[in-house]
Amino acid sequence: xxxxxxxxxFGILMMxxxxxxxxxxxxxSLAAVFFLGLLGVNIYDLATVPADAPQMMFNNMxxxxxxxxxxxxxxxxxxxxxxxxxxxxFEKVGTHVAEYFALIFFILCGLYLLSTFNTMLMLFIxxxxxxxPQYILAGSDKRNLKSSEASLKYFLMGAFSTGILxxxxxxxxxxxxxxxxxxxxxxxxxxxxxPLALAGIMFIVVALGFKVSAAPMHTWTPDVYDGTxxxxxxxxxxxxxxxxxxxxxxxxxxxxxxLGEHWxxxxxxxxxxxxxxxxxxxxFQQSVKRMLAYSSIAQAGFMxxxxxxxxxxxxxxxxxxxxxxxxATIGVFSVLIKLKDYTYDGFNGLAQKNPFLAFVATIFLFSxxxxxxxxxxMAKYYVLTAVVEQGNLLWLVIFALLMxxxxxxxxxxxxxxxxxxxxxxxxTSPVTxxxxxxxxxxxxxxxxxxxxxxxxxxxx
Amino acid sequence: xxxxSILFWVLSVMAVGxxxxxxxxxxxxxxxxxxxxxxxxxxxxxxxxxxQFLAVVNMIVYAGAIMVLFLFVIMLMNLNADVEPxxxxxxxxxxxxxxxxxxxIILAALKTAATIEVNPTSTDIGLIGNLGKVLFKQxxxxxxxxxxxxxxxxxxxxxxxxxxxxQDLPRSEEKAVQQ
Lengths: 460, 179
Prior knowledge:
The structure holds 2 protein chains of 2 kinds. Chain A is mainly α. Chain A has one domain (2-457). Chain A has 19 helices and 2 strands. Chain A has a two-stranded antiparallel sheet with strand order 1-2. In chain A, helix 9 (220-227) crosses helix 13. The longest helix of chain A has 32 residues, at 145-176. Chain B is mostly helical. Chain B has a domain at 127-165. Chain B is 74% helix and 0% strand. In chain B, helix 2 (28-48) packs antiparallel against helix 3 (52-77). Classes of the chains: A mainly alpha, B mainly alpha. Chain A binds chain B through residues 4, 8, 11-12, 15, 57-59, 61-62, 94-96, 99-100, 102-103, 106, 109-110, 113, 121-122, 125, 128-129, 132-133, 135-136, 139-140, 142-143, 145, 151, 171, 174-175, 177, 194-196, 198-199, 202, and chain B through 105-106, 108-110, 112-114, 116, 137-142, 145-146, 148-149, 151-153, 155-156, 158-160, 162-168.
């Protein structure tokens, strides 16, 4: 609860700082301090919530348990890492630097609600608080027409998906006569299931599938991620997506736990379609930024596995996947943003020009591809184990392994361009000592998650 | 057939008919006017369900303020048949099929749904006093936290609305500069 208040207060403080401080560098440094402070508040929250007794707050609106507090802490940590790596790049996007930081604080407020919601009302408000700042961030580079296009497209499609989500919540309310997800699970049973509830669940699958860019609701993703300023794409594709996945799991594993036979197969098919579309289309991209957009669709397919598997391993899996994927993707984007040319050719010969950048990019791409000893491997291992434990869905696991093999091709294409091709890549800004330290820290987290993933599960 | 049923049917026919008018009329201005009528009919339904405050708010906010804004936007954009994007036959067919399937599902779901009788004796349930009590006691958190949502929307209005140095001028202003 303290974290929700703290992030809102920090967001408002950022707005006032924007009013009073004119130097962009000072604003960035202050924001970094605030994000580290927010991480401290989260750790305090984590320490004060008892491990085995979840706290219900505000007439059962929120349910603060240890797992969700730990998820909040990890995601805040990823956000702080993101700000330390890329905060400087905000200054190049536009003039309203302080407002961009404020919006990221508000996104975190939405994330905290999504990880602790106990009623559909809070789910809806959380998703909206998370989405609206993203529409704004997508359109923040007003000198670039593609950014405005991305913002408008995202906003219109997002508004439609919100409508569908509300329709689903309404139908579920009609069937269970409650917004509370704990009440829902006691009312909704397979034998006496009202078709209203079934239709409601399908609407919610579509709406949440849109937010996490699952196929066939993924069509907005490449254009929006490509048009959005790179500094913000890195955040939209990682922490935000992980937050919606956590809410997705919380809703389906708690409220619809008894109805598995109705939704598991449908989400399994969606996951397979997402993997297929994401991986196969990523192969044909010429721009690395666009390839990363498709790769984020493909990774969403893997994260859907955690939703499908209704067991404890799935919760471990989402925790590791969220961190491993977020950290590695933020890392790749931090390298990408240093380059002037986002096509594969723009990476040609990076290893000769700047061996350090090429090296860290290789580690991050290894993690995304799921090579052993990196966090990405452990993440994929855990999600696949969860689905195997679930049973009946072995075809999906085999299909996922096949798709993971395809993904190696397009990730390694970047590595080949960096190491085995010659060219003169142009950098937008020099790689400073601070950049190097932060990139090395990010690398260390990626490797640590691969060697000792149990650290990420230590507070579950 | 008592007065309640008569009102219910009149309002329902009005709501469905006007909603059809929204999507079937070619002129966008007519669509907006039909939408206002739909809101009026729905407000009538709210009153039938003893939600007087909601009915009033629906009239003032939706039928009044938001629809006027809609009308302004449509008139400013000067929409007509010439600028309407042409959709391919296949896209139209796909739209009809998916929309039809959705309609069928909702129809089937509603057909078997259990209906709950509203309690007609408690006429003050939708009055502003009771609503306020529920809003500030049971639903205090969603009520307060919505402020974060509106705050970010306000930031959006400022960030997107303000002109940045180096930003391209809109076409109309460009002409003015040239003259």
